[in-house]
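2024-03-11 09:14:02 INFO worker-7 job=invfold-0412 stage=load source=structure_tokens
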């Protein structure tokens, strides 16, 4: 991707529609995250947990823009969310969600039109790290065509700003 080393292989095992195991491997970054339902989340063998930041004006937010936000007429809401945050970055794709799981970023907002295979593995890592993972409407799951991950403390605030 034009020399930017932010790509990963994502593997998820689902059972009856629920993700039970997920692995996110980013070899160009030299990092691997994994989680299994009820067993916690890890990066390179160390346990990870979301941050405890509970105010948007103290939070780091990462957004992946796509034309889908324009089509929904919600791009201005993304901009407003970023302006309300302490700091906004665009880490993108899987990485923003892994940074949420690690506690380095409080909120990750993905592109509209993202696929299930892009989200299943990251969902379980975020949730097992103590975070919340939904689509942009607040529905839990990996098949909603969008994704918002957070430390859980800011999720309702973020969703209210995006709808």
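2024-03-11 09:14:09 INFO worker-7 stage=emit residues=163
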């Amino acid at each position: 991707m034009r020399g930017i080393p932010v790509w990963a292989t994502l593997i998820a095992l689902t059972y009856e529609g629920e993700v039970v195991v997920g692995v996110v491997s980013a070899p160009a970054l030299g990092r691997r995250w994994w989680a299994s339902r009820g067993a916690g989340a890890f990066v390179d063998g160390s346990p990870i947990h979301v941050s405890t930041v509970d105010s948007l004006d103290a939070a780091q937010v990462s957004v992946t823009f796509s034309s889908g936000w324009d089509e929904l007429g919600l791009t201005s809401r993304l901009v407003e969310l970023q302006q309300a945050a302490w700091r906004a970055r665009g880490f993108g794709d899987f990485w923003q969600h892994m940074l949420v799981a690690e506690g380095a970023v409080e909120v990750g907002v993905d592109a509209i039109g993202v696929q299930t295979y892009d989200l299943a593995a990251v969902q379980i890592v975020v949730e097992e790290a103590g975070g919340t993972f939904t689509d942009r409407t607040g529905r839990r799951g990996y098949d909603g065509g969008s994704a918002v991950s957070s430390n859980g403390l800011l999720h309702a605030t973020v969703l209210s700003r995006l709808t």
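2024-03-11 09:14:09 INFO worker-7 stage=report msg="The two ends are 31 Å apart (CA to CA)."
2024-03-11 09:14:10 INFO worker-7 job finished
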